[in-house]
Structure formats: structure tokens, C-alpha cells
Amino acid sequence: MCGIAGIFHAETPKPVDPKRVERMCDAMVHRGPDGAGVWTDLGVGLGHRRLSIIDLAGSPQPMLSADERAVIVFNGEIYNFRELRAELARGGTRFRTSGDTEVILAAWQKWGAGCLERLDGMFAFALYDRAKRQLFLARDRFGVKPLFMTRLPDGGLAFASELKGLIAHPQMRRALDPHALDAYLTWGYVPDSHAILAGVTKLRAGNYLLLEQGKPMPKQRRWYDISFAERARGSEAELSAELIGRMRNAVQSRMVSDVPLGAFLSGGVDSSSVVALMSEASAHSVATCSIGFDVAAHDETTYAERVAAQFGTKHEARIVGKDDFGALAQIAAMFDEPFADASALPTWRVCQLAREKVTVALSGDGADEAFAGYRRQVFHHHEERVRGMLPEAFRESVFGGLGRVWPKADWAPRPLRAKATLLALAQGGDAGYASALAVMGSQVRHALYSSAFKRQLAGFRAEDELVGLMRKAPARSGLDRAQYADLTFWLPGDILTKIDRTSMSVSLEAREPLLDHRLVEFASSLPERMRVRGTTGKYLLKSAMGRYLPRDILYRSKQGFVTPIAEWMRGPLQGDVRAIAAGSALARSGLFDTSRIAQMAEDHIAGRSDHSRGLWQMLMLDVSLRRLGVWS
Predict the structure, then answer these.
(1) 214 exposed, middle or buried (CB, 10 Å; 0-12, 13-18, 19+)?
(2) What b/e readout covers 530-567, taking b as 16+ CB neighbours within 10 angstroms?
(3) Which carries the bigger pLDDT value, residue 73 or residue 296?
């Protein structure tokens, strides 16, 4: 795993200062502490920071092909590189190294952009073809590895694995993108369709960009998209057997490493499944680690310990407490863009714990998106049935009317919190799911915005992007469209961003076997009854793993990596919460109605409402934009 950066002049080739590329890479030294390199030619410069995982001594980057006609910088792992290497060798290719980087170079020279479809792995890379004067930027299917880009004032294109790599370039401008801010407050993260700084873009998951000197900047091209258009056939027993086989292959392919390897273990279905299959494939005890909380209702370490004992892993656990939020600035520094998924804190802590023993850790990320494991997906599945039975006008009149007058009872037991469900039923399925995903709805956000900021938005509404995505999805049902949105929007923007930044901040490589594209494609073809059965999501996965895991691990209520920030904000973090609306850079920005933010804070502290997620968003926004130099 590594960090990459570079500069490319397409329209007018200019010399590239290698010191600038080096500075961009050095800003990401945490991604690659084991080595560094820079290569330049007329109009192009490529830089690399290396974390050695495979072929520890033999694959330095930037790497030139044997004929020196192509050069690459690569961040990621190609799990089928040995099979590709053998195929290319049979065709006459001669290799000088034993790693995966040289295989990508050879695959490009053999198949061009078509090489991407043959790569099984996680990656973001930049490859310059000296003969064609082309720069090829590519990102993996689901967006496990990131790539940021910006046009510089001198016409060049700069790119880097993290935004901090771009900021290290002296020509980088730092102005806020208003649409990205609205998207951040909607979702709690800045999705791949935006970047918090104006003029910055992200190479989207499953996309590539092919630039050529002497030609104008092209648009991104999509080379991969997940489809829910087909349905698998077979009995539950047959589908379960196929599922286990695909999961076993995915886990085993990600256990190839020349450095110590372990796993994250939360005690939930997904990480426990990965650990079970790792233990089955390993002749040695698997190293596992977990994080707990000092609030008992949120602590799952006992479940992790049970799974660890069952499979005889070398397990370690650590507790996260309220004092850990003293690391707020460090968390903001990891992500650069504001990022309000509070589970980033425990994810960072578990990565730190893992790095004490291993350099590579397998995680259970991706299963909820692929197999319908989120509570919101199960609710949406049943809501779609109601929508299908009742006319739109009736739903809007009855459910919409009830939803508008129903109290927002955050304090009440879950069955009595009907407001969100009623309002969702009043809308179409796509709009209803967008509302379910949103941290802050449109009305709530606009009540917080100043008049001046509303004018900057010019009618932009972040939810519309997700609704449009769902309407165009290659899908057959509402559940399909919801999962498609989670896999293509939520997963790269939130989940994979979180695990990439927190793991790389401590020079740890995280691998996601449950995002093997063949496994996800199989999951997307499952009949709905194999994904959702009654109130149970991930039905087939849980059923299939019954031979490995106890029932109470498989079927207990999903908790996730939930951080108890609501309780902490009513306790030792009260001062931080109140400061958001008074004295902070955010309060002085002119973008918000600070009196409303102050009221949110007081209502939360008093226990009248739960505004913890919204207040956490504001807190992370303030810290992040001050670090980026947008606010003083």
C-alpha cells in the first residue's frame, strides 16, 4: 500500500520540477514510510511513497517497463497478479521483479485500458506511456483506493492519493465549494461527486481518465458498474454452498503477504465470518483485535472475545473513552475533508492496535451493502411494498399529513419514532431512501444556513444526486436500487474513505475480502428473499455461516461501530458543543445562523432532542476547514 502523486501538462508540455512532486509525496509519508521515488520527463512527473507488502526489496517505484516505454506509480494490491503474470509470460513478456506493479505495466502494454477488467484488486494508479504521450489514471471497481485531482493555474493537472498531497503544491488554491458543503451536511461526508475545495475533483470508483499531450482534458470514463438486473437460480442449499465457496476464495486471495497479517474483529457477523474463514485457511493462529467503549451499551468486546476463543486467535482489545476526543485535530488531519462518521475514532484506534502486531489486516467491510445488512435497507424493502399497494396521491395526503404533524420524538422508544417512516412513505421510493440516508434533511439544513449562503447554493440540493443515481440504476426493485446507491455512493464516500484514511495514517494496509467483485456480483443477483427475510437482512449470508458461528452472533441486533458521542456531548464535551456557535471559525464564517446552532446545542445538552450527529458534523467542519486554510 502506498501514496502516489504527480503533475501532467497535457495541452502545453512544460518541464516538471521534481521537488514539487517530492513535496506532494512527502505530505503523505504515512502512506509509505518504506521508500520514495520521483520520475520526470517533459510535461510529466510521477512520485511515490512505498509501504512494502509484496516483493519487499524488488519493486521500487516509479517503475519503468523493461523497454522503458511506460512508467507507473501504483497504490494498492492486485490479488490475481500471479495468474496474470503467468498468462503474460506465456505470451512472451519477461519480468524482472516478482511483484504486482510490473504486472500492471505489462498488462497495459498488452491490453491498453482493457487491462482494468483483468485486474482483481484494490488500486489507484498513474501510468505514463512515453511512446503515446498518454497518462492513464485508474481507480478500482468499488473505490477502495482514492485519487484526488485539480487543474493548476499554469494549466497542469496535479493528482494525489490524498487532498493533503495536492495542498502541498504551491499553486493550489483553497476556496470552499458550496455544493460540497451542502453535500457534507446532508450525508456526513463529502461524496465522490464533490470535493470540499473548489476546483478539486475525485476520480470516481470504477472510472479511468486517459489524457494525451496536445489534446484537451477528457471526461472520466466508467469501466465498471455493478448490476442488479439478473437473478440467480437455485435452492437455498445450492446458493449457500456457492456463497461459502466465493467467500472462501476471496479471503484466501487476500491472505497473500510477505509481511505479518491479521484481522479486525468486532464480534459482528461480517468480521466474524472473515476470521472464521481465515482460521480455516491458516496453519497458524490468526492475529485479531477489537475496540470497545467506556459506555456499556455500546461495547461489543465480549462478542469479539467469544469469536476469538472459538477460533483460537491471538486476540487483543482496547477501550475508547471520552478522553479520546482530545485527538479531534488528528482525526481531521487524516481526512482533510470534513468527515463526520464518528466511528472514525474507534476505527483509527483499532488500526493503531493492529499495527502494533501486523502490517496487513482484513476487515468485514462491504457485506452490508452487498447483502442488504443495513436496517434502512430492510425498512425500505417493506416500505416499497406499501408504496406498490397504495396510489401516490393517497400516500402523500395520508402519510404526508401524518408525518408533518407527528412529533420528532428522539427520546422515545424506536417503535414510537414514526415521523421519518411516515414522511418516507409519502415520497417516492428513491426520494424516501435518500431521506433515510441523510444526516440532515433539506429543511433542517436550510434553517441553519444564512441568506448569503443560500444564494451561493443557487437551488442545489444534495439529495437530488442520489435520487438521480437510483433512478438510473441497473436494477429490478426498490431494494436493488437502495443497495446500488449504497455500493456506488455511500460505500466509497463513507465506509472506504474511513478505513483507507485511518489505516494508512498508521501505515497499515486494510483489505476487504467481502468486496471481491465476483462475490458482490453474486450477491447482487440473489433473489430478494435471499437477502431480506422478514426483519432479517443478509439472510443468506447468516444462514450459510450457521455452520461456523453461533446463532446469537449471527442474529443479534445489528449495532455497528457506534460511538457514544450523544452521551459524551451531554457530559465532558458540553463546552466543545457550545463553542461551535460562539467563538468558532464556523460561527464567524457568515455561512450559518449561529442562533439556531446554539439552540440545537442547548436542546441536545438538556436531553430534549438528540442532535449529536448534526453537532458532530459542525464540530468536524470547523476543525477541518481551519486546517485546510479556508477559515482562519
Answers:
(1) exposed
(2) bbbeeeebbbbbbbbbeebbeeebbeeebeebbbbbbb
(3) 73
Grid coordinates belonging to 53 = 507488502
Mean pLDDT over the full length of the chain: 91
How far is 33 from 20, CA to CA, in rounded Å?
19
Residue 530 has what DSSP assignment? H
**pLDDT tens readout for residues 242-255:** 999 999 999 999 99
Residue whose C-alpha cell is 466543545: 576
| 252-305 tens-digit pLDDT | 999 988 888 999 999 999 999 999 999 999 999 999 999 887 666 556 789 999
Alpha carbon distances (Å) from 378 to 54, 268, 490: 40, 18, 16
Least confident of 58-67, 172-181, 372-381, 609-618: 58-67
CA–CA separation, 603 and 526 (whole Å): 45
Residue environment code for 11-21, b if the CB has 16+ CB neighbours within 10 A, otherwise e: eebeebeeebb
**Does residue 13 have a cis peptide bond before it, meaning omega lies within 30 degrees of 0?**
no
β-strands 207-212, 200-202 pairing: unpaired
- The answer regarding whether domain 2-222 maps to CATH 3.60.20.10 reads yes
CA distance linking residue 394 with residue 400, whole number of Å: 9
Q: Name the maximum alpha-carbon separation found in the chain.
A: 72
- The residues annotated with a catalytic role in the active site are 2
Cell numbers that stand for 1 in this block = 500500500
How buried is residue 412: exposed, middle or buried, by Cβ count under 10 Å (0-12/13-18/19+)? Answer: exposed
Domain boundary assignment for the chain? 2-222, 236-372+488-555, 564-632
How far is the C-alpha of 632 from the C-alpha of 4, rounded, in Å?
29
How many helices (H) and strands (E) the chain has is answered by 29, 17
Residue the block writes with cell 474511513: 498
Q: Does domain 236-372+488-555 have CATH number 3.40.190.10?
A: no
State the helix-helix crossing angle for 419-426 and 429-437, rounded to 10 degrees. 150
Q: Do domains 2-222 and 236-372+488-555 have the same CATH topology?
A: no
